[in-house]
Write a structure and sequence with these properties.
Elements (H helix, E strand, L loop, with lengths): L8 E5 L3 E5 L1 H7 L2 H4 L21 H22 L7 H13 L9 H11 L7 H15 L3 H6 L4 H12 L27 H14 L7 H4 L3 E5 L5 E6 L3 H19 L2 H19 L5 E2 L5 E2 L8 H4 L6 H6 L7 H11 L5 E7 L6 H5 L1 H6 L10 E9 L13 E2 L32 E9 L4 H17 L20
Parallel strand pairs: 4-9
Antiparallel strand pairs: 1-2, 3-4, 5-6, 7-10, 8-10
Helix pairs in contact: 3-4, 3-9, 4-8, 5-12, 9-11, 12-15
Length: 481
């Protein structure tokens, strides 16, 4: 570490107040690859439903960097015996800063919907893209000397990559410091500072109430050896309710915003526009050696990929290629609020695997001669508590308050788990919602009504009950008694 420690830059963040970003992190921030995050909406198409959802991946990444630093610094202060080094503190902060470098246009719409549609054989994830972009960023901006100035070697850069996407080889991880992998992207139980920031930031910008207090959480965690001999992050037993509030906040954001019916209608239309753009041979982005790359090809070329952001919307809109007329028409419809119409919502049948799911629009269209499968599209409505239909808090570990003869900051040896019959008395009956929503692209009422009738018939044939459009609840007439 350099003898003269330079002070970082101070940002006034609307969520966390005044936060300090370390000098090496600022070197990363001041690169075109990181600045690209200013043009990626944090919540993608949700902005078309909630006008406040205008925040970007840029400020979220600064917030995660801040929280990652606060968490590991707290661990370092609590227990010097953990042997956390200044280099490891910096690695965790950089991982928090760079964890979202690999997001594409409209955030999760790109990697979760568009890429699987146009490149079904691809294993693309935004986490892996973040690692590639991180490597590219260091090389393109000649930052290796800056990393070495702060005593970060190649093995530390590899460690940062593992903190972002998880270790590639369990045998090579810093086993005695396995808990460090739980700070930025926690694969063990999904409790990490990435969620702490986006829950607080999304709720703040959308005007939602956030009942999870991440600042309180950061005061009550410790590193304890668990039943398997691994050191892991544990929280005070009295914070179990707060932990449930965290997962409930996630469910609330998905239910009311990310999977809102209008959000999904806009999402379907943007995806259709991107598919048309991907098929256009002249709609390309210059990649390595100035090679033109189509949209699907950009994921394998970081020179081209860093040119993708939400401004692709405007690029399509202002294009003149005849092949993009269909995409321009869709964008025009979005701007005029002439959206795809939701004709039905129903629980996803258990027998409906991914391959069968693709055939559902055709199956519905076959039930009415006037329907064309091309005017129907299926959107998945899935949200959970991070562990599918399981209670995620069961995967977490707790500790009790030290006895009177121990000190609050003294060693805590017992690692506890929630008893099978315990938990808040008002837990949900299920920890996930898994439904399908069918949209009709046509504008005329006759076709829309035909699609609604055909969808109800499809539900009857597949023994599922259609839900009301709003909220997924069924209602019946109130009677006396």
């Amino acid at each position: 570490m350099a003898e003269c420690i330079k002070r970082g830059k101070i940002f006034n963040d609307p969520v966390h107040g005044h936060i300090e970003i370390p000098p090496l992190c600022m070197k990363i921030v001041d690169t075109p690859e990181f600045q690209r995050l200013r043009f990626l909406k944090q919540m993608g198409p949700v902005y078309y439903v909630y006008p406040g959802a205008s925040h970007n991946r840029f400020e979220h990444s600064l917030g995660v960097c801040h929280l990652a630093g606060a968490m590991i610094s707290q661990l370092q202060k609590q227990d010097p015996n953990l042997g956390i080094t200044p280099v490891e503190v910096l690695c965790v902060q950089i991982a928090g800063l760079c964890h979202d470098l690999g997001h594409g246009p409209f955030s999760h719409l790109f990697d979760n919907v568009f890429i699987p549609l146009v490149a079904p054989q691809s294993n693309f994830t935004h986490e892996e893209a973040s690692i590639k972009m991180f490597q590219h960023l260091i090389k393109e901006n000649n930052l290796m000397a800056d990393f070495e100035y702060y005593n970060l070697k190649q093995e530390d850069i590899d460690f940062i990559k593992e903190l972002i996407a998880g270790p590639s080889n369990e045998d090579n991880i810093r086993r005695e410091k396995k808990y460090l992998y739980e700070i930025v992207a926690n694969k063990r139980n999904s409790v990490d500072v990435d969620k702490f920031d986006y829950f607080a930031r999304d709720c703040y910008m959308l005007g939602f109430k956030n009942n999870f207090d991440h600042n309180r959480f950061l005061q009550f965690f410790r590193v304890i050896k668990d039943e398997n001999g691994d050191h892991r992050i544990c929280i005070r037993d009295k914070e179990a309710e707060n932990l449930y509030e965290m997962f409930h906040t996630r469910k609330n954001l998905h239910c009311r915003a990310c999977k809102h019916v209008v959000t999904q209608a806009v999402e379907c239309m943007i995806v259709d526009a991107l598919v048309i753009a991907d098929d256009c041979e002249t709609f390309t982005f210059p990649g390595k050696d100035n090679t033109p790359r189509r949209l699907r090809e950009c994921i394998d070329d970081m020179v081209a990929y860093k040119k993708l952001d939400d401004t692709i919307f405007q690029r399509i809109m202002w294009s003149t290629e005849p092949e993009l007329q269909g995409a321009r028409d869709l964008i025009d419809r979005i701007q005029k609020r002439q959206l795809y119409k939701c004709v039905g919502l129903a629980p996803r049948p258990e027998h409906l695997d991914k391959e069968r799911e693709k055939k559902v629009p055709q199956e519905i269209a076959d039930l009415d001669d006037q329907l064309n499968p091309d005017i129907l599209t299926l959107s998945r409505v899935h949200y959970d508590y991070c562990m599918k239909d399981e209670d995620p808090v069961r995967y977490y570990r707790f500790y009790e308050k030290p006895k009177h003869h121990d000190t609050e900051d003294g060693p805590i040896k017992k690692c506890l788990k929630l008893c099978e019959d315990q938990g808040p008395q008002m837990l949900p009956a299920h920890f996930q919602v898994d439904m399908i929503r069918i949209f009709c692209k046509a504008k005329d009422k006759k076709t829309i009504q035909a699609a609604e009738s055909a969808f109800k018939q499809w539900c009857d044939d597949n023994e599922v009950t259609p839900e009301t459009i709003r909220g997924g609840f069924r209602f019946e007439e109130a009677t006396n008694g």
